[in-house]
Specification:
By secondary structure, this protein is mainly alpha-helical. The protein is 60% helix and 3% strand. It has one domain.
Length: 187
């Protein structure tokens, strides 16, 4: 007697195919990162996996660093490479810029976490690929949450007494200080 087909096998094939497609897209999207940073990247790469050198370069948002984020985003969205940003239609440009600014915040939060200033930040457990391809799903919820200042931070007591909007403003005001801190760590 023949075995009955497993009704879940078809769904597993779809999941495996989607994972393979994402892995291939990530490999292509990270090709310029691999040569620039001399590190390995995949669809599973989280900000916590990046070297301090790579994180600092991306967080500065100066010189050529925006290109690497644009290139990642555009490749994952099938918009071409980062070199083609200026040729995009305005709707596509906005999609790239929205994701770029979102990623830039997460990169800077990760740096502040490594400085010991943040305990955790919204989205720290997601991959960079997730941030790009699931942006519409993830960003609205993550953007409404404020990173948690570390209890070791000298201004923690002041921070803990603030309301939600003031806490977000407080964290945002730390970004320029973190960027100044980075200047000593650049290549």
């Amino acid at each position: 007697m023949g075995r009955l087909p497993d009704k879940h096998k078809g769904m597993q094939d779809v999941v495996d195919l989607e994972k393979a497609r994402l892995d291939l897209a990530a490999k292509k999207a990270y090709r310029n990162w691999a040569s620039k940073f001399d590190e390995s990247f995949s669809s599973e790469t989280k900000l916590s996996h990046l070297s301090l050198r790579s994180l600092v370069f991306l967080a500065q948002a100066k010189e050529k660093s925006p290109f690497y984020l644009y290139d990642l985003i555009m490749n994952l969205l099938n918009f071409g490479s980062g070199f083609e940003f200026n040729e995009l239609e305005s709707k596509q440009k906005m999609a790239v810029v929205d994701r770029y600014l979102f990623l830039l915040d997460r990169i800077r939060f990760e740096y502040m976490k490594r400085l010991g200033w943040l305990e955790r930040y919204p989205g720290q457990d997601f991959t960079l690929v997730d941030f790009v391809v699931r942006f519409e799903e993830l960003a609205p919820g993550l953007q409404t949450k404020t990173p948690l200042l570390s209890q070791e931070h000298p201004d923690y007591e002041k921070f803990s007494k603030l309301g939600a909007f003031e806490k977000e403003e407080f964290i945002r005001k730390l970004i320029p200080k973190a960027l100044r801190e980075m200047l000593g760590k650049r290549d």
